[in-house]
Write a structure and sequence with these properties.
heterodimer; A: 160 residues; alpha+beta; 32% strand; globular; B: alpha/beta; Rossmann fold; 11-stranded mixed sheet; 13 strands
Chain lengths: 160, 321
């Protein structure tokens, strides 16, 4: 029989409380941090219990995987492309992996970002540790896939 | 049935087993699908004149009228406050189109509805704004407001497994409602179309997503204000989504360039579900049943307890224009 780690509960509590100290303003690149991208408005935060107000119908999947809270920010690229960035703070890395693996890989390319990622052209997802990140662009443009990756890399660099 | 003569009990059994639309709908349930391959202009933007023509074709066909205004007069009467229940969960990516709502507002006014008697509503002001609508509650104009503005009733409405506070947009502000869902996949419930879109009229939709939404979606639709006030469904199938819903996932949308019109929400949902399954098959994806998210609530909505319409293709008159 496997022995329980006596510190497991403590680690879990720390992980959750650390999540509560995260400042979304530190996680999202600001206007000018990534060439072409500007942040629109202030980031919003949704705790797990009210995530359905942001992702009604989809929130349960995140809750079951152990989401602690979700940060979201709107972006605009050179006044043409609108995009949204979601950072889901999970209880642990397994939760972030579970979300990523629950999504269809149909039509995607592997993305070398964080611990694992996928690129779908107008959107991308990746996970790093207990973070699951999704970037979605609302319009198409030839350079958009690379621009989205640039924004993703800037976010990934802040998830330390 | 054997060859003995039918007695009264047999007749009763036969009646109970008969297609359910005999109770709720006389004859077949009509579902009109209007499509226009030229709907999009440069840059994938929607061409407003083409959209208006497609809307007119759909309504004229549905009501069998020579003029669009005559068709709209079958839907609404002057003096009524008409609510347009939009679906804005997916933000600007795949919510009810602003251009479609504008086109419907134009026709409603031409049919005699005053602009201050038109209310565009959904769950939250934030949802409306995200989808491109501008929240406005000026009493002399078309109003755009979320349930967080109108408030909810203080007493629960209850049917079966559902117990919810109803939006006052539905119960008090509007005399009648035209439901404007979007054609899309749903990661838990299979699909979200006419029936499920009315989750936007209650305070606790997050409670009803277990067991692929069955029987909750059907039970919520049974709540009297919904059943009594929703008069028509116009499904926005201009941009449809076959995977990853209800959130907007650009990799799984496709330009269906259509509208689906019905009075029977069950028939509309069944028809829309089949369109999504067909697209999934084209893409080599598994069926919703194989993924254990077949929208069983559609059959529940048609059963003897609910009788909200029919999911029997033999009793659905599918018209493509």
């Amino acid at each position: 029989m496997r022995r329980r780690n006596p510190f497991a509960a403590l680690i879990a509590v720390c992980a959750v409380s650390c999540g509560s100290r995260l400042d979304p303003n530190q996680l999202f690149p600001k206007t000018g941090d990534v060439p072409g991208w500007s942040q629109k408005g202030a980031p919003r935060t949704f705790e797990a219990a009210v995530l359905w107000r942001y992702l009604d119908g989809d929130a349960e999947r995140y809750v079951q995987a152990g989401v602690v809270r979700t940060f979201t920010a709107d972006y605009r690229h050179t006044d043409q492309i609108e995009a949204v960035a979601d950072i889901h703070v999970m209880r642990n890395a397994a939760g972030a992996r579970r979300i990523l693996e629950s999504e269809s890989a149909d039509g995607s390319q592997p993305l070398s970002l964080g611990d694992a990622g996928r690129h779908y052209g107008s959107s991308l997802i990746f996970r790093r540790g207990r973070y699951f990140v999704r970037l979605v662009a609302y319009q198409e443009a030839p350079q958009m896939p690379q621009d989205l990756v640039d924004l993703g890399r800037a976010i990934e660099a802040r998830l330390r | 049935m054997n060859d003995r003569a039918m007695n009264r009990r047999d007749v009763l059994k036969a009646c109970l087993a008969a297609p359910l639309q005999s109770a709720a709908f006389q004859g077949k349930s009509k579902v009109v699908i209007a499509r226009d391959p030229l709907l999009r202009g440069p840059g994938h933007s929607i061409d407003q004149p083409h959209l208006l023509l497609m809307l007119d074709r759909a309504l004229q066909s549905f009501y069998d009228r020579d003029s669009a205004i005559e068709a709209w007069k079958r839907v609404v009467k002057p003096g009524e406050v008409v609510g347009l229940k939009v679906n804005c969960l997916a933000g600007r990516g795949n919510s009810t189109s602003v251009v479609l709502v504008d086109a419907i507002c134009e026709r409603l006014q031409q049919a005699g509805v005053s602009r201050h008697h038109i209310v565009i509503w959904d769950r939250l002001n934030q949802d409306l704004e995200s989808a491109g609508f501008r929240v406005s509650e000026w009493p002399d104009r078309i109003r755009y407001m979320g349930n967080d503005s109108s408030g909810y009733e203080s007493e629960l409405s209850v049917y079966g497994s559902a117990g919810s506070l109803m939006s006052q947009n539905l119960t008090r502000v509007c005399d009648t409602v035209i439901n404007l869902p979007v054609l899309k996949d749903h990661g838990i419930a299979g699909v979200t179309l006419a029936l499920k879109s009315m989750f936007g009229a209650i305070h606790n939709p997050n409670k009803y997503h277990v067991n692929v939404g069955d029987p909750y979606v059907a039970d919520v639709y049974m709540l009297p204000p919904i059943r009594q006030k929703v008069r028509l469904h116009i499904c926005d199938a201009i941009t449809a989504q076959y995977e990853g819903g209800p959130s907007y996932m650009p990799q799984w949308i496709w330009p269906y360039n259509g509208l689906i019109v019905a009075r029977d929400p069950v028939a509309l949902d069944y028809t829309g579900w089949q369109i999504i399954e067909q697209k999934r098959a084209e893409k080599g994806m598994k069926t919703l049943k194989e993924l254990r998210r077949e929208p069983a609530y559609i059959a529940t909505a048609a059963d003897a307890q609910h009788r909200l319409g029919t999911n029997d293709p033999q009793w659905i008159e599918r018209v493509e224009v």
